[in-house]
Amino acid sequence: MKITLKVWRQKNDKDKGSLVTYQLDDISEDMSFLEMFDVLNNQLERKGEAPIAFDHDCREGICGACSMYINGKPHGPKQTTTCQLHMRSFKDGDTIVVEPWRAKAFPVIKDLVVDRSAFDRVISSGGYVSVNTGGIPDANEIPIPKKIADEAFDAATCIGCGACVAACKNASAMLFVSAKVSQLALLPQGKVEGKTRVENMVAQMDEEGFGACTNTGACSAECPKGISLENIARLNREYFGAKAKSDNQ
Amino acid sequence: MKLDSKIPEGPIAEKWSKHKFNIKLVNPANKRKYDIIVVGTGLAGASAAASFGELGYNVKAFCFQDSPRRAHSIAAQGGINAAKNYQNDGDSVFRLFYDTVKGGDYRSREANVYRLSEVSVDIIDQCVAQGVPFAREYGGLLANRSFGGAQVSRTFYARGQTGQQLLLGAYSALSRQVANGKVKMYAREEMLDLVMVDGKARGIVTRNLVTGKIESHSAHAVVLATGGYGNVFYLSTNAMGSNATAAWRAHKKGAYFANPCFTQIHPTCIPVSGDHQSKLTLMSESLRNDGRVWVPKEVSDAEKIRKGELKPTDLPEEKRDYYLERRYPAFGNLVPRDVASRNAKNMCDEGKGVSKSGLAVYLDFADAIKRDGRSAIEGKYGNLFDMYQQITGENPYETPMMIYPAVHYTMGGLWVDYNLMTTVDGLYSLGESNFSDHGANRLGASALMQGLADGYFVIPYTIGDYLAKMPYDKVSTDHEAFKQAEADVKSKIEKLLSIKGEKTVDDFHKALGHIMWEYCGMSRNEEGLKKAKGEIQKLREEFWQNVNVIGSNDELNISLEKANRVADFLELGELMVDDALYRSESCGGHFREESQTEEGEAKRKDDEFSFVSAWEYNGPEAPATLHKEDLVFENVKLTQRSYK
Amino acid sequence: MSWFTNAISSSLGRKLLMALTGLFLIVFLVVHLIGNFQLLHHDGGEAFNIYAKFMTSNPLIKTTSYLLYATFIIHIVWGIGLVMSNKKARPVGYNVTKGSTNSTWSSRNMGLLGTIIFIFLVIHLKNFWYEMHWGGIPTVAYAGESYNDLYTVTATAFSEWWIVAIYTVSMIALMFHLYHGFSSAFQTLGLNHPKYNPLIKGVGYGFAIIVPALFAVIPIIMFYQSI
């Protein structure tokens, strides 16, 4: 396959950056999208040019590191992670534009690499059950209905890649936050701190500079794990319920 | 130095309890006076860092990924073993212990494995309390499955994403301590050296992967939970960033490296599609429950298939060789991982491989679909079939799947004693990065168990024993030892950047991987290993003269990151070969062609090789010294495996 | 800040206000539409004028109307604020976007649609509401009681093709605005359940099409009656 790539190149966080065009002539359709980038980087290195920096790690669709905005969509044309996107999804002669995630809360570090530590800070603000190691009652002490456990699991499959933020026209992190809030709100273990958790996580999310949700549904449509909008509705319920009932004055 | 494994006295079932009582404790008020560095935030690292923080220690945690949540533990699929006996099917701590020692082909330390089995039950409680959504029965209790040929159902799972859910649990506990200010998290920061002061590990030197800044961090103890070294092979199921640099540089500072040649090769991976391939994807081995493995009987048919002139579905039954069923009528397609892997390699070596590259065998579901119906197969393996189709573009319901073995896990690692301390005082190693629990072969669903056992339930106790004897005084990062380590790291980086040769880092990595896979992979022999040693040395020499590392240190520099790691792989690879050469027996994942039974199966030599090999680094020129920790089996009877 | 102001100034709270005010305006649309049907009575405007007087003099309705004004203002001001702050969440945009593959056009353009409706609202209020309250409207007497002849004002306005055109275009904008807004409000209130979602969506789409269509049909009918 012959592919024309237009890739965002930006030296560092201060550089202005621009799209740079590359021609690739010998691309196999069995390559993953990232392997195509490996090939390109190898060619650049051979010419003594700086390879394109991009985040990636597990390359099996679970670590959530890869993050390319491909032809106007996070992770490209398929609802999967960039590492699981293969060149057979494109046609010979295609031009592909690759940009980094764009959000105030995700500043570009270099080329296609962005800083997603905002997500870590949101989790730190309450995305956990406050139990210390050890001294825990037997795991089967609390039966959990299978349906609830499955629903919590569906929310827990979030890989924290940030495609929801990248897809949302408001760069809102609502799907990410709601997935964690939902997982823990559904389970009896998480209910204990439910109110403070949702209040704190939403406050942190706002502080990070993510936009508000306008229910376009783009996040869920682009989520590689198909996290449902129901979670955002649950986040809303949890939040207003908490605000109305919690002890915070 | 004589290896002292510090195994407590007494009957095996009482060792850990007694030890916990005997070791020293740090007063709660004094814990805040100690600093601990944890490198790596996978299951072992995140759980250890969180537990230290809860206890009151000051923790600095490091990971090279952009977030601790992305450590490669996340990719584990199958599940986590625990001797809960919820299924009332005869499981017990002793049985899990017994199975693990036997599965490891009697090359692991009994006392450590028993402790692992003992604390396994606490892990499940801990994870459930954190909100890990394990699979459940309709009655609301936890579900279990049998895994990897185990006789009991002791595996807890969360669909095919158990590693992810457990890691997110540990990450949440870690995040809580970050919020509490007890853990300071350093993401995108890679450890490049260990700093020793007065013979003790007192800190590390890191490179900030965004700015390139070389930084020193001081502490009272250093814990490495940096994972395995499977990426020595270039192609493996490890993440792209998984590396051995932290462990290797600790090794060079005095930590012995144990059993480096013990690597696990997983039989059911998606085959390599071309030279561009960067990583291999594992398919759950449960597929072998229903799939039948075969290659064409005739090389000429295999050739036609490779050229695309013949479709596998058009090859008549009598021209197919269901070689596992033929050779192992009792176990058939369900022979252990290493046996299945080796046989696949042999078939391909004979020219019967079926993919374009000739490195694949078929895993055929046609009979299962005919027998049980497509929907039944879809119900069991739907997600795996989808994944296969996404990656290969072929529909496994219609044409047989192609599989090939791939490097998956490394049982070897830094040598540790019963307290998980390496041969360097104050330096600990947890999880896959140590050698301790899996012997020569790891059982399915045991890696997650070990990572969390080490992090949640072992190291929080044993580190106290060491710290209680340490003065509170902190070592300043202005100390000469730190300055020296920083200077060494900087000069190595400068060297790498100054070579400006003609080959890329990946070229060298691929070449190394090729040597390792060819000679130190599924099947090893003296001649090949000797050849490999020479080739690795040559390659390493060439690397330091002809590699081209682009850019500078003061930026996010992916070439430099890789170069640092590959430089270490080039040294570690040679040690693996040395170890494989010395161990002229076959055991577990290590198959020496010289040591096989008449039927061509692996043959252990217990009288000669019932030991852990622990290698001491002696500088770049001198060969490493081998130290042996003799393995004593008091509770498990040694038997030779047979699957005929 | 009290918990309440804290809650409504958060990203979720602002959305909640949009949803609540939006739903109130949806109810208002129904009431308004029922009133508009009085224009089609073929009684020279009697029913409509009586209705109009009732609406401007009944104390309960008058009180409600203040709530309505407030609702409009909140919905508009908050909406503008939301659009602006959401814009800030992505200071550097993409070169290429394909929003159409993951969301509806109306959901992405609520701000634009709202602006069109706002412009319409200004014209609309000037034409009728202002005239009714402070303009020099001719009066007419039914059964000895005097009424403002709003019907004639309306009929005159709707005999102009361009006013009818503005109304029709605006109602199309309203259609799209409601197409997203109706079910979106329920989502924001946390009402999302697989069992009821089809109902909410169905009613929402039906409402979004039928109500603005009926609003638009009245001026068109009156225009044809005038020629």
Describe the SSE topology.
The complex is a heterotrimer of chains A (249), B (644) and C (227).
Chain A: E1 3-9, E2 18-24, H1 33-46, E3 69-70, E4 73-74, E5 95-99, E6 108-110, E7 113-114, H2 117-124, H3 146-156, H4 163-167, H5 174-186, H6 188-191, H7 194-207, H8 218-222, H9 230-245
Helix pairs in contact in A: 2-7, 3-5, 5-7, 5-9, 7-9
Chain B: H1 15-22, H2 28-31, E1 35-39, H3 43-55, E2 58-62, E3 80-81, H4 93-103, H5 110-130, E4 155-156, H6 162-180, E5 183-186, E6 189-197, E7 200-208, E8 214-218, E9 221-224, H7 245-252, E10 257-258, E11 263-269, E12 292-296, H8 299-307, E13 320-321, H9 323-327, H10 337-349, E14 361-364, H11 366-372, H12 374-392, E15 401-410, E16 413-414, E17 427-429, H13 447-467, H14 480-499, H15 505-519, H16 526-546, H17 558-582, H18 606-609, E18 611-616, E19 625-630
Parallel strand pairs in B: 1-2, 1-9, 2-5, 9-17
Antiparallel strand pairs in B: 3-4, 6-7, 7-8, 10-16, 10-18, 11-15, 12-13, 12-14, 14-15, 18-19
Helix pairs in contact in B: 3-6, 3-13, 4-5, 5-13, 11-12, 15-16, 15-17, 16-17
Chain C: H1 3-9, H2 11-36, H3 46-57, H4 59-88, H5 105-108, H6 110-134, E1 139-142, E2 145-148, H7 150-157, H8 161-188, H9 197-226
Antiparallel strand pairs in C: 1-2
Helix pairs in contact in C: 1-2, 2-4, 2-8, 2-9, 6-7, 6-8, 8-9
What does it look like?
The complex is a heterotrimer of chains A (249), B (644) and C (227). With 249 residues, chain A is an alpha+beta fold. Chain A folds into two domains: 108 residues, Ubiquitin-like (UB roll) (Roll); 129 residues, Alpha-helical ferredoxin (Fumarate Reductase Iron-sulfur Protein, Chain B, domain 2, Orthogonal Bundle). Chain A contains nine helices and seven strands, in the order E-E-H-E-E-E-E-E-H-H-H-H-H-H-H-H. In chain A, a hairpin with an 8-residue loop joins strand 1 and strand 2. With 644 residues, chain B is of the alpha+beta class. In chain B, the strands form five sheets. Chain B has a five-stranded parallel sheet with strand order 5-2-1-9-17. In chain B, helix 3 packs parallel to helix 13, helix 4 packs across helix 5 and helix 15 runs parallel beside helix 17. The model of chain B has no long low-confidence stretch (mean pLDDT 95). Chain C is mainly alpha-helical and 227 residues long. The model of chain C has no long low-confidence stretch (mean pLDDT 93). Chain C has a single domain, classed as Up-down Bundle (3 helical TM bundles of succinate and fumarate reductases), CATH 1.20.1300.10. In chain C, helix 2 crosses helix 9 and helix 6 crosses helix 7. Chain C has nine helices and two strands. The termini of chain C are far apart. Helices cover 75% and strands 4% of the residues of chain C. The chains are: A alpha+beta (249), B alpha+beta (644), C mainly alpha (227). Chains A and B meet through helix 1, helix 2 and helix 3 of A and helix 3, helix 5, helix 6, helix 12 and helix 13 of B. Chain B: Its main location: membrane.
